[in-house]
Each structure stands twice: as structure tokens, then as C-alpha cells.
Amino acid sequence: MNLDDMYRETILDHNQNPRNRGHLENPTKSVGLLNPTCGDEIALDVQLDAGKVSDIRFSGQGCSISMASASMLTEAVKGKSAEEALAIARNFKSFLTGTTEPENLGDLEALHGVSQFPSRVKCATLAHNALEKALDDNQPQT
Amino acid sequence: MMDVALVDLKKDFPILARPIHGHRLVYLDSAATTQKPQVVIDAEVDFYSQHNANVLRSVHTLAEEATTLFQNARQTVARFVGASRPEEIVFTRGTTESLNLVARGFADKFLKPGDEIVVSPMEHHSNLIPWQQAARRTGANLRFIELDPVGQITLEAARAVIGDKTRIVALSHVSNVLGTVNPIPEIAEMAHAAGAIVVVDGAQSVPHQPINVAQLGADFLAFSGHKMCGPTGIGVLWGRYPLLEESDPVMYGGEMISFVDRETATWADVPEKFEGGTPNIAGAVGLAAAVRYLDDVGMERIHRHTTNLGEQAFDRLHAMSGVSVYGPQRPHSGVLAFNVDQVHPHDVAQVFDSLGVAIRAGHHCAQPLMQWLGVGSTARASFYLYNSDQDIDVLVHAIEETKRYFRR
């Protein structure tokens, strides 16, 4: 087994130098999610202006995969419309389970190796689930 | 000094010969579940291939044999923990079910509003949530014995909480995270003087040291088969016979009754009234084989060996830079929680796995303890009779590799 298949350089870079980490002063939406099997937690603050994700921050604690994935996600969706952002989160989740080609995923594509490690898939998708909660009006807000 | 002859027993465990990612398997996750010796595997195979039948029901030959094996297993376990009679052994699915049985069957019946249940912040969720819920149902209050700075329960701290209102003291004997060994006999004396009963979570102690329920001072003792070389899905609740008699059944159905009419039912005697439905017969037979195996090796010897490994590992990791270890330095059972600076435990465990080393990472079903430690989660290495000094060398090496990998 090669660890490098999972821990690509890009991932370690996002883990060590997270982008958009922190909080927003007056977020439009704020969602916290827990991964109860490992105790990881993530909070997303999203600023929506005219239907666009004008700003986004993440906070919390977790493994390198969950933190890098959150960092990459914030970069991928910043400046996109809420619909586009939601599509990215969903595309990533099906990309990870091997059913879809990546679309507009940017650095997130580096996480593909995680699909070989089923127990870590939930780490990689934690931030994406939080974003879905924040942007999908059909989902209950926490 | 390492018990070399004991480590030689590795050959009794077929799975330990399986390479993982091209490395020798170093199994350091016995606090989660232990590996099984061939004699236990054989006992289950023999039961299903030669004696399988339902128990306590039929008169045919197989049913007689299965019933005898099942009841012999009860006797074997009773002897192992020093029960005064085999009926004091209730077979359950494991520690969790055993503790829930006490909370439902005993606590619900006897607790009144204002009564107190005493626990500690180091409890596994299975010895906390059943009491949280029993308190809600009965109006009793939950109280915590606070830990000292290294995570031990002192008698002073226990004395500060156990008092006139205490009805139940529910504590783990050995922490599944900190490796702390709690002074159960002394606390039991205190609890009994206050008129309380003592429930002991023995999941991490019964597999590792000689246990005599009378010396322990427990009124109920819960433990799991799979953490002591036995099969999964079989566990034990030992209780003092009069307390079991007073307790209500919590699972209604077949074989737990005495007489049933359209509207009412009366219960079978202890322990059958707690064992509604077809029990895990093969599991009980396998557990008895595990008990015989451990007895042959010697529980004193196993205790010395795993404590020695736990303390050695504590010292080795404590001396490493960028590594935190938790719990007391001495005595320290064969469970060692640790963290590598700036590397999340999941990432630690992933690097370990690539080297063939199996450890646990997470909150270990003890979130209040993680809150007390001020960490989100930890890595945990745990030892059993098949581990050796060499495995600690591998553990230290794996930590060095982890640091190297994540700090390049």
C-alpha cells in the first residue's frame, strides 16, 4: 500500500496552510457538523450576496483529510452561485465514490485517492455535507 | 523482564501470522477486541458441527448436549470470577447490554427522585448513558467523582461525592483510555457504608487480571467475551444473587417465563428470566474455551505481562519529543493513549496501518474524558498476552515514521 496515493502533496499543503480558515462576522448561513465516529467537527460560515457565495470560512478540528478537504472546498466555491456551489459539493461526493467525472473541483480532485480507504471517505465529505446543509433550502438547518 | 514463554503463545493465534501490507501484523488494538486462539475457533466449529441444537427446550440427544455445554460454560465463567453460584452469571451480548440490564432492571425499579447515581468522567459511554437515561426516567441525579491531574480517582475525591443520597456507584475498573486502575475495593466499602450498590464495568479488567467478585466488593460486574479471546456477541453480567432476584427482566419472550395466560405472565428463575429468546449458545461455548485458555496461561502472569508492556510503552513514548501520553505513569495497565504533535490521530493510525501496525484512533467512546483531557481524540495502543517488547520497538518506530511523513 502506498500512503502517497492518499496523502498527495496538495492535501498536505492545504492541511498545513489552510485557505479561508476562520469565521465571518455576519454570515448568511452558518452550519456545524460532527463526525460522531471520530469526533471531528467542522463549522462553515457562508456569505451570500445576490445568490453568490461572496465569502466563506471554515473552522473546526479534524484529520488532515477533513481539514484539507474543507480548505479546498472553500476555494472551489468562492465566487460561485449557490447552485454552482451545491453542484460542486454533490459532484465531489459522487466523484469520491467513483461514479462521476470531476467538474470544476480544482484541488479537490487530489482527494480521489481517498476512495481506496472507505473509512476515510466520511472525513473527506464532512465539509461538503455541511455546505449542502447551508445551501440547500430543502434540508433542515442546524 | 519480558515473559518470553508467554510471547511464544503468538502461534496459538492464526490471524497473527497474516501479513498486512507486506509487514508482520503488530496488533495493538486489543482494548477494542482481542484476537482469538485456535482453541476458541475450534470450540465454535465443534459446537456447530457436532452438538448444535436449541437449549433448555427439547429432549433429543443434541438438545441435551447443547444444554449441557451451555450450562457448563456458565459454570466455567462463574468459577473464573469467583461467583458463589453459576446462576449469578447472566449471558448477554456484551458489557453494554449488561450495564443497560442493570440500569433498566435494577435502577428503574429502585431509584427515587433525589437519589444519586455516582459515576466518573472516565467512563466509557456504555457506563454513562444508561445512567443518564435511568436518572431521567426516575428523577435521580447523576454525580461525578472528579479525576486527579493524571486521571486517577482518589479516595478523597470519591468521599466528596459518595454520601447518604447515593444509591448506585457505577465505575470502570480499568479505564479504556487512560490505563488507570481504579481502587474499586476501597470505593465499594465506602459505597456500601452509605447504603449504595456498586456496579463495575470490567470490560478492560476481567481480561487482564485475576478477578474475584467478593474481593472486588462489586454487586454487579459487566464484561465482554470478545475482549478476552472469546467470540463477539457474548458477554456477562454477574450479579449478587439476591440483587438479580429483585431485578426485573428487560427482554420479554421465550424461555424467560414460568407461566403465561392471555393477560399475564410470571418469570422464570435467575438467570433465565434475563435471557429471553434463544441465547448465543455457540458464543457461550466459545467464551468458556477462552476462559480455559486464559486460565491455562495464568491470569497473574497475563496481568504482569500486559502491565509491564503498558508501563514500558508509557516510558518510551513519554521520552519521545513531540509525543504526548495520557494517564498515570505507574501503575499503568496495557492501554496507552497518546498523540503526536500536529498530526491528527486518524492520520497517525493511517501511517501505522501502512506499516502493519493496528491501533485505534478516535474518542474511544469516552467523549466526556476527551473533554476533560482537552483533546478531540487520541491514538491508542493496547496490549495483550501475545504482544512483546519487540512490538513496542515497532510502535516507537511507527511514531518516528509518522512524524517524518507529516513534517516533510
Describe the structure.
Chain A is of the alpha+beta class and 142 residues long. Chain A has a single domain (3-135), classed as Sufe protein. Chain: A (Alpha-Beta Complex), CATH 3.90.1010.10. In chain A, 39% of the residues lie in helices and 19% in strands. Chain A is built from four helices and three strands. A three-stranded antiparallel beta sheet of chain A has the order 1-2-3, covered by helices on one side. In chain A, strand 1 (29-35) and strand 2 form a beta hairpin. In chain A, helix 2 (64-77) packs parallel to helix 4 (118-135). Chain A starts with 8 loop residues before the first helix and ends in a 7-residue tail after the last helix. The mean pLDDT of chain A is 91. Chain B is of the alpha/beta class and 408 residues long. Chain B folds into two domains: 4-30 and 299-407, Alpha-Beta Complex (Aspartate Aminotransferase, domain 1), CATH 3.90.1150.10; 41-296, Aspartate Aminotransferase, domain 2, CATH 3.40.640. Helices cover 40% and strands 15% of the residues of chain B. Chain B is built from 14 helices and 15 strands. Chain B has helices spanning 4-7, 38-51, 61-81, 95-110, 129-138, 155-159, 184-193, 213-216, 241-246, 281-297, 299-318, 345-354, 367-373, 389-406, and strands at residues 26-27, 89-92, 116-119, 141-144, 166-172, 197-201, 220-224, 235-239, 257-260, 265-267, 323-325, 335-340, 357-358, 360-362, 378-382. Chain B has a seven-stranded mixed beta sheet with strand order 2-8-7-6-5-3-4, sandwiched between helices. In chain B, strands 11-12-15-14 form a four-stranded antiparallel beta sheet, with helices on one face. In chain B, helix 5 (129-138) links the parallel strand 3 (116-119) and strand 4 (141-144). In chain B, helix 4 packs parallel to helix 5 and helix 12 crosses helix 14 (389-406). Chain B is globular, with a radius of gyration of 22 Å. At the A-B interface, helix 2 of A face helix 12 of B.
